[in-house]
Amino acid sequence: MRGKPESNDPVSQHEILGMQRKSHILMAFLQALLITIVLLLITFTLYQGWRERLVEKGRQAGRTELLGIRKNLFLLMGNQEMFTALFGQRLEESLAAGFDVSLAEVSSYLDYLEQIHPSFAFATIARENVVVDTYPKQVLHEVGFDLRTLAQYEDHIGYTLQVQQVTLDGPLDAGDDTSYLVSRYALHDNNGVWGLLTLHFNFRQILLEAGVEDVREGYTLFFTFVHGSDEQHFDWGEAATTKAEAVVMDLSYSLLQWRMQIAPQGSWIEFSIPLLLYGIVGSFVSLGVGVFVYLNQIKFQMIKTRSRTDSLTGLLNRREFEKLLHQTCKEEQAFAVALIDIDNFKEINDTYGHLNGDKALLSLVESLKKHIRMSDGIARFGGDEFIILFHDCTNAEFCRRLFQAIRHTRVELEGIQVEVAISMGVALSEEGKQVDALIETADRRLYRAKLEGKGRICTTG
Predict the structure, then answer these.
(1) Pairing state of beta strands 416-428 and 457-458?
(2) What stretches of 117-260 show up as alpha helix (H) in DSSP?
(3) Where are the transmembrane segments (predicted)?
(4) How many Cβ atoms sit within 10 Å of the Cβ of residue 159?
């Protein structure tokens, strides 16, 4: 049989149960933590989904604002095309009749256009690439398709003259730090192309007419109109809105190309009390469920532990000891079963009371814990009876040595040192592998030890 370890080593079954309880508490904590994390992830996923829907709702609102401006711009450009075509057709009537033409013929129309569209700046007639007439007369306009600008806009002029329709183009810089949208109409006489009518509209004023300043607060806008050659462009708004979260629309109209961008000054998602409350409540619910699971796991383990142990001593109860003994009987190893009883325990209870009787029991338990090995099992078998399973025990000698160490335990009861004596009955596994038979043998020998005078150990008979 293995030698007995030192008495100060952690050897008791009670300590093993304590370690098991700690393990169960740790497992309960890990389970609760896992459930909490899963619930928090679900809460976060739903929160993010809700938030993304709100963000998309905000982006859709911004997109709606852009669509409104886009609609207004298209209406303005359509009007510009219409007026340019009407003015051009009126001038062509004079050309067809053989009269010289000038913008004075349509000055009343141009006055009206200036009144209803503040963006209208001036008009020109160019012939053979030279500006021949301007409106209004008091200002000398050199913006047209003269020799200086012909090379830059040759492709556009050629397109206008070929298709014989109104075209919109820009931006066109007049040299005064103002960019213009230009509307062109090719004038024809009986011999073909006679010249070019061009109406100039201030880009900044066009955007104001389109309602860019009517966009509700909380947005920043950025528009950029780019000439086909990318050499000229007109920008309006804050270029900072080109960040990734901006809603962007790329558009074209006739020969115009431009980009509209809108972004929130803060975030697409406005402050949402329901979303905030969901995040807070969802987090607390997740933590609450985790705590609830943890406490219930602890409660379950406590109930489970109580069902396996004695409430007073913390040792295994009789049912669990019998399970342990059944398992040991199936294994191919020698063992011994020792049944212990406190001598004259009734007298201790009658003399000092049941509380002091419990104190005597606990004193004996502590003594047993100090002297048995970690591999051994101990249980409370009855009121003042304890039973021990000694693994790897081939003879009764070890049981005798243990009995000599614990046969007398002194405990102070009401200021008096009282000696607690025990009797022990031992049964070896070689005498049989039936649990009931071994316990019955140990009990019979314990009874014999008491009949022979108490304070004894009996290993035979």
Answers:
(1) parallel
(2) 147-163, 203-210
(3) 25-47, 275-295
(4) 17
Q: Average pLDDT, stretch 56-75? A: 91
| Cβ atoms of 343 and 423 closer than 8 Å | yes
Distance CA 342, CA 323 (A): 24
Strands in 92-149 per DSSP E: 120-127, 130-135
The fold of 53-264 is: Beta-Lactamase (3.30.450)
Bond into 118 cis (ω within 30): no
Determine the Cα–Cα distance for residues 184 and 227; give it in Å rounded to an integer: 15
Structure tokens of 233? 């462009």
d(CA 199, CA 176): 17
| 134 pLDDT higher than 50 | yes
pLDDT tens profile 44-58: 888 788 888 888 888
Residue 415, class by beta-carbon neighbours within 10 Å (0-12 exposed, 13-18 middle, 19+ buried)?
Answer: exposed
Using the Cα atoms of residue 259, residue 265, residue 266 and residue 268 in order, give the sign of their dihedral.
negative
Q: Hey, where are the domains in the chain?
A: 53-264, 310-458
Q: How many residues does the chain have?
A: 461
Q: Using alpha carbons, select from 231, 208, 25, 252 the residue that is nearest to residue 117.
A: 208
Both tokens of 350, joined, read 């009658």
Q: Which of 79-88, 137-146, 171-180, 414-423 has the lowest mean pLDDT?
A: 137-146
The terminus-to-terminus CA distance of the chain in angstroms comes to 23
Question: pTM, whole model, 2 decimals?
Answer: 0.56
Report DSSP state, residue 111. H
Tokens read off for 176: 């005064």
The mean pLDDT value for 89-100 works out to 89
Amino acid making up residue 447: Y
Q: Which of 245, 247, 240 is nearest to 60 (CA)?
A: 247
**Rounded to whole angstroms, what are the CA distances from 167 to 21, 187, 197, 255?**
87, 13, 11, 7
Question: Would you call 451 exposed, middle or buried from its count of C-beta atoms within 10 A (0-12, 13-18, 19+)?
Answer: exposed
Angle (CA) 123-129-130 rounded to 5° is 65
Instruction: Report in angstroms the alpha-carbon separations of 209 from 82, 105, 441.
Output: 17, 27, 110
Question: What pLDDT, in 10s, does the model give residues 25-39?
Answer: 777 777 778 888 888
pLDDT at 244: 62
Q: What is the DSSP letter of 140?
A: -
310-458 is a CATH 3.30.70.270 domain:
yes
